[in-house]
Structure formats: structure tokens, C-alpha cells
Write a structure and sequence with these properties.
The complex is a heterodimer of chains A (about 325) and B (about 300).
Chain A: E1 3-14, E2 17-28, E3 32-36, H1 43-51, E4 58-63, E5 66-67, E6 78-81, H2 93-97, H3 99-103, H4 108-121, H5 137-149, E7 155-159, H6 167-184, E8 187-192, H7 195-201, E9 204-209, E10 212-217, H8 219-224, H9 229-234, E11 239-241, H10 243-250, E12 256-258, E13 264-266, E14 270-279, E15 283-290, E16 293-300, E17 311-315, E18 321-323
Parallel strand pairs in A: 3-8, 3-9, 6-7, 7-8
Antiparallel strand pairs in A: 1-2, 1-4, 4-5, 9-10, 11-12, 12-18, 13-17, 14-15, 14-17, 15-16
Chain B: H1 7-17, H2 19-49, E1 52-53, E2 60-61, H3 67-72, H4 75-108, H5 112-127, H6 130-141, H7 146-153, H8 157-164, H9 178-202, H10 206-214, H11 219-248, H12 252-255, H13 263-271, H14 277-300
Antiparallel strand pairs in B: 1-2
Helix pairs in contact in B: 1-2, 2-14, 4-9, 4-11, 5-9, 7-8, 9-11, 10-11, 11-14, 13-14
The chains are: A alpha+beta (about 325), B mainly alpha (about 300).
């Protein structure tokens, strides 16, 4: 498979801030790729480097094999769905969607037909003549999507497109985006700070922290075998066991990740004291103090619960413990 | 509750229970001012323009007539109207063209200290007296003035002389030409164009410009299809100032420019020296009509759609 987007040792500095710091990354054609990280981690700047709104301070950006480092945004075969949607307030929905085609000098009747088709695709037929100000947040989001897709981009960039929607709508849109991407076969690059969103939608996820890519893998691998303490903690908030504890348990001097749901209470095992417990709906989370470290344990609802302050034994299957690279980036 | 015992506290409580009372109290003074003093005098003006003057006795005849309006169409009077509207149009157009880049810079690029410098630069001339500014321009534009000296120093006097020999816009020197009047108007009203345009541009998020580029528009196309339509309400607001202020002004054309009069001067002379208040009123109604027509056209063309 050809790579749709390729970063080659790309950096973007803002003054002393290294927003994107030496990132090398390949996004494959046709995949749903998520860039995940906390705010200020460089994921949005990476997206803007693909769109061309930012130019790399160092390194290169390739789009479909072509060096796009010095290509302005209006000559790139990519389109963006903006976080604030950036719909043009003076144009109606149809003209908003047809804007790219208008610029490309597509005749009026034709571009209006294409715009209406794109609006059909996002289930907004009949909204053509409305102004963006007359739409709800979810509807604006769909218009922004249609406006980008109508140009048949090779790569669709989405900058936290679901961030402004409420939970129900967000879950619904996640499913729709996923099936839209399958249907169209376009490469989607999706920026989010919500690990659940990234895991549920993406084929592959790049986890960003401090301008650097920590790990690029499929959601399953990312979850089961995080490579760094940051990934372990950010994706599914795992327990990161300190080096001394791992040394004592399995004789390797490394940090290790242990998922809370993989731990069970047993007759025998690591000894700890229950500090607190929280009811989460489907499960109960215990915070257990072990040798000065704190370990979260997720127990299914209905399990027998120890009292706060009581001593418990923690056990897990051998493969639940996943070793991390010693460096914390 | 300690505050209920104080007078201020009790007043606040009363307003909280009857929010309309506060609104009424806030609105009564400006409504009285606008309604009686302002609209009243406007109505009096309108009424005066439907009277006429007896040419022999010089007394006002209080019978309803359109005769005074008819006098506006006499060549000598009609010239004044055309000249004034043309000047106001030219000043407005030039102000929009000059103001836009300044406003754009201030809205998109200036931050922190540069923003302060921008506001000072735009507002500072407004703090000094209008007359001082106009007289300093007379000095700049005079035959012995700075501009002439500059052209001479650069050995470009012939350019200025060639320009001044153009009939209509030229003259003996810039300070007694229509170009001079135009330049002073442009300078004096420019802040009234810059500030609303800057405010309009300030409201355009940068993501909107990025979106336009992202959809394939080159910067020039983004300017035409996104920035200008969104700045238009600001440009129209600014043009209301520059256009109407030029239409009504009578001091600038008196100090800088030719002896040919503008509407403001005509009103001043007809109501003062000539004592022809009906004609002065008819002249004064013209700018109101012109502005009404202008705004109607602007509205029809969708200038306020982005509001």
C-alpha cells in the first residue's frame, strides 16, 4: 500500500516551543488514522502540517509520494473538517458545500447538484437553503463534513470534529464517520484527545506527547502492549508498576503496565491495603496501596468487596504484565 | 441579609422584582432626547422645506408648496448637489481603499504593543481640534507648503504642475483645488472608516480563512469570496460616517478648496446671510434622502447579510 501521508523527521517550532519535535510517521492509503494526545501534545499541529496551514521548521511532509513541504494549502489534495466547523456565515448551506467546486469553476447547476448529493450523504437533504446560523451543532458538523467530502479529497483531515457535540450525538457520529470512511475508501486522519474515540474508530493510532510520537499501533496492540509509561497511562489509564516492584516480581529491571481489569483478588499474591473504592456503574474500582505505590483494580459489579483498610492479595495472569521501555518521553 | 436594610439594597431588590422598571428608567432619558429634541428638530426642518420665501418682501410664506424643492433643480443649485454627492462618494471610496489594509493588519496581525500603537495612531488625530487639523493641511498643501517643497526637492515639480493643470481637480495650488478638499476630507474622516472595518474583520475567525484556502481558494479568491463579504457590514458602517459627514460638512470646503460651494456651505449661507430658511431646509433634506437611498441599495445588495 502506498503511503498517503509521510512525515520525515518533521519539526515545527513556535519560538522556543517544540510543538512538533522530530516526528517520522507514515499514514497508509485508505486507513482511518487517529492522532491521539493531550492538549499541547502536537497532534493538531501535525494535522495543520498536512493541511499546509503550518510549514515545518525542519524535515519534510509528503502527500501521496509527492513532497508537499512547500505546497500551499490550496494546491494540496486534502480537505479539512475544522474543530469550529468554520462554515461561511454569509453563504447558505448549499453554497458552503459548493464553495470548493465554485473555486474550481464548476458550473453552478452542476456544483449545486454535487452539493445536494454530498448533503444527502450526511443525511441533511432539504437543508440547502438554510444559513449555518440556523443549524444545530451536529448539523453544522455534517455540513462541514459534506463541504470537505464534495471535493473528493485524497485525505480527509478531521480536527477534533466531535469535540463540541454532546455525548449521545458524539457516539452516533463516531459510528457514522466510521461507516462513511468504509463506504468512500478515503484516508481519514483524525485528531482527538479522547482515547475512547481513537480506540473505537481508528485502524491505527499515533499517541503524541510533548511534540513526539510515543507509539503507532492498532488500538488492540496499543492497549495490550503499550511501549511507554505515557501510553500505558493515557490509553485506558493503566497501572505503571515501578522498576523495583517489577524487579521483585519477575526479575526484570523495567517499568511495566498492568491493566486494572486484569487484576483479581486472590488467596495469595501481591499484598496491599485497600485505600478507597468507587462505584463506576458496570464495575467497582479499588485503589490499593502496595509498597508505597498505588494500584487500581477493577472488579466486576457483584464481586465480593473488601472493606477499606483491609489487606488484600492481588493476582493476575502472567501475560497481563507488559514491559515498558525504560525512558519516559 | 444586611444589604436589604440599606437604601441601595432595597432599590436593587425592587429592580430585581420588576426588571421592566429598570429598563424603563434606563430608556426614558435617551428616548426623550431622541424623540423630542432630535426627531422634533428633524421634523421642524422637514416642515420648513415645504414653505417658500416671498422674493420681494423676503418673508416666509407658510403655505405648503413644493416650489422650494423645485429651486434645488436650478442649475446653480443642482451643481452644488452633484458636486457634494460626487465628493462624498469619492471620499468614501478612497477611505474604504486606504482603510482596508490598515484595518486588516490591525485585526489579523497586530498584537500587544502593536495593537496599542494602532489604536493610538488612529485615535490620536481625533483628539486634536478639527480646525487645527484642517489649517495644518492648508499649510501642507499651499503653494509655499511642504508638499510643493517636497516635489521641488525631488525635481518632480513638473508632475505636480501637470496634475494641477488638469481642469476640475486642479488649480493654482493644491490648497485651492478640489484635490486639496478631497485629501483633507479623506484624512479627517479616515478613522471613522478604519475602526468599523477593523471591528468587522476582528470577528472573522482565522479558521474561516484557512477553510477557504483548504477548499482550494488562492489568497485573492479568499479576499473576494470570504473576507470582503464578511467585512462589508463594517465598510458600510464606515461609509455611513464618511459619506454623511462629507455631505454635511461646511468648514473644510471653506478653508481648503475652490470657491464653488458644497451643500453644507449652501445651507449655512441660505439660512444666515440670505435668510432663505426654506431653501436651506430643502438643501439639508438632500443628504438625508441620499443616505436613505444609499442604505436601501446597500441592503438590497445584501450588505447586511453577514450581520
Amino acid at each position: 500500500m502506498a503511503s498517503a501521508v509521510k512525515f520525515e523527521a518533521t519539526s515545527r517550532f513556535f519560538g522556543d516551543t517544540r510543538a512538533v519535535d522530530d516526528v517520522t510517521l507514515e499514514i497508509e492509503e485508505g486507513e482511518f488514522f487517529a492522532m491521539l494526545g493531550p492538549s499541547g501534545s502536537g497532534k493538531t499541529t501535525c494535522l495543520r502540517l498536512i493541511a499546509g496551514f503550518e510549514r515545518p521548521s525542519q524535515g519534510r511532509v509528503h502527500i501521496f509520494g509527492q513532497d508537499a513541504t512547500n505546497t500551499p494549502p490550496y494546491r494540496r489534495p486534502v480537505n479539512t473538517v475544522f474543530q469550529d466547523y468554520a462554515l461561511f456565515p454569509h453563504l447558505n448551506v448549499q453554497d458552503n458545500v459548493a464553495y470548493g467546486l465554485m473555486i474550481a469553476r464548476v458550473p453552478k447547476a452542476e456544483r449545486h447538484r454535487a452539493a445536494d448529493e454530498a448533503l444527502d450523504l450526511v443525511a441533511l437533504s432539504g437543508f440547502s437553503k438554510r444559513k449555518p446560523s440556523e443549524l444545530s451543532g451536529g448539523q453544522r458538523q455534517r455540513v462541514a463534513l459534506a463541504r470537505a467530502l464534495v471535493n473528493k479529497p485524497k485525505v480527509l483531515l478531521l480536527d477534533e470534529p466531535l469535540g463540541a457535540l454532546d455525548l449521545k450525538l458524539r457516539e452516533q457520529m463516531q459510528g457514522e464517520l466510521k461507516s462513511l470512511q468504509r463506504q468512500l475508501g478515503i484516508t481519514f486522519v483524525f485528531v482527538t484527545h479522547d482515547q475512547g474515540e481513537a480506540l473505537s474508530m481508528a485502524d491505527r493510532v499515533a499517541v503524541f506527547n510533548n511534540g513526539k510520537v510515543q507509539q503507532v499501533d492498532s488500538p488492540l496492540v496499543l492497549y495490550d502492549s503499550p511501549k511507554t509509561p505515557f501510553v500505558a497511562d493515557f490509553v485506558g489509564s493503566s497501572n505503571v508498576l515501578p522498576v523495583e516492584m517489577v524487579q521483585r516480581l519477575i526479575g526484570v529491571a523495567k517499568l511495566a503496565s498492568l491493566r486494572p481489569e486484569n487484576i483479581r483478588l486472590a488467596e495469595d499474591g501481591l499484598v496491599g491495603t485497600v485505600e478507597s473504592q468507587a462505584f463506576l456503574g458496570a464495575a467497582i474500582r479499588l485503589e490499593v496501596a502496595v509498597d508505597g505505590a498505588r494500584i487500581s483494580v477493577l472488579l466486576p459489579k457483584g464481586a465480593e468487596l473488601p472493606n477499606d483498610g483491609s489487606e488484600v492479595h492481588l493476582a493476575w495472569d502472567a501475560d497481563a504484565l507488559s514491559l515498558l521501555e525504560a525512558t519516559n518521553g | 441579609m444586611a444589604s436589604t436594610t440599606t437604601f441601595g439594597g432595597r432599590v436593587s431588590d425592587a429592580f430585581w422584582r420588576k426588571p421592566r422598571l429598570l429598563l424603563a428608567l434606563l430608556l426614558v432619558p435617551p428616548v426623550l432626547w431622541l424623540g423630542i429634541v432630535y426627531l422634533g428638530s428633524l421634523f421642524a426642518l422637514l416642515a420648513q422645506s415645504f414653505f417658500s420665501i416671498d422674493e420681494f418682501s423676503g418673508l416666509i410664506n407658510y403655505d405648503f408648496t413644493l416650489k422650494t424643492y423645485g429651486e434645488l433643480f436650478r442649475p446653480s443649485n443642482f451643481d452644488i448637489l452633484i458636486r457634494t454627492v460626487a465628493m462624498a462618494g469619492a471620499v468614501t471610496l478612497a477611505a474604504a481603499i486606504v482603510a482596508f489594509p490598515i484595518a486588516y493588519y490591525a485585526a489579523r496581525y497586530a498584537t500587544g504593543r502593536w495593537k496599542v500603537i494602532f489604536y493610538l495612531g488612529v485615535m490620536l488625530p481625533l483628539w486634536s481640534s478639527y480646525l487645527v487639523k484642517v489649517y495644518s493641511w492648508k499649510l501642507i498643501l499651499a503653494k509655499e507648503g511642504i508638499l510643493n517643497w517636497l516635489f521641488e526637492t525631488l525635481h518632480l515639480s513638473w508632475v505636480l504642475q501637470a496634475y494641477l493643470s488638469v481642469p476640475g481637480i486642479g488649480g493654482y495650488s493644491l490648497s485651492v483645488s478640489w484635490t486639496g478638499t478631497f485629501l483633507v476630507f479623506l484624512y479627517v474622516w479616515l478613522p471613522f472608516m478604519i475602526l468599523p472595518v477593523q471591528a468587522a474583520l476582528e470577528r472573522v475567525p482565522s479558521s474561516m480563512l484557512e477553510a477557504s484556502g483548504d477548499l482550494g481558494a488562492q489568497p485573492g479568491q479568499t479576499l473576494r469570496y470570504v473576507i470582503l463579504p464578511l467585512a462589508l457590514p463594517g465598510i458600510i458602517a464606515g461609509s455611513i460616517f464618511t459619506f454623511s459627514l462629507t455631505l454635511g460638512d461646511y468648514i473644510i470646503p471653506q478653508i481648503v478648496g475652490t470657491s464653488a460651494r458644497m451643500i453644507g456651505q449652501a445651507v449655512y449661507q441660505f439660512q444666515g446671510t440670505a435668510g432663505n430658511i426654506p431653501l436651506a431646509a430643502a438643501f439639508a433634506v438632500v443628504p438625508i434622502l441620499v443616505m436613505g437611498i444609499y442604505l436601501t441599495i446597500a441592503r438590497r445588495m445584501g450588505a447586511f447579510d453577514a450581520l
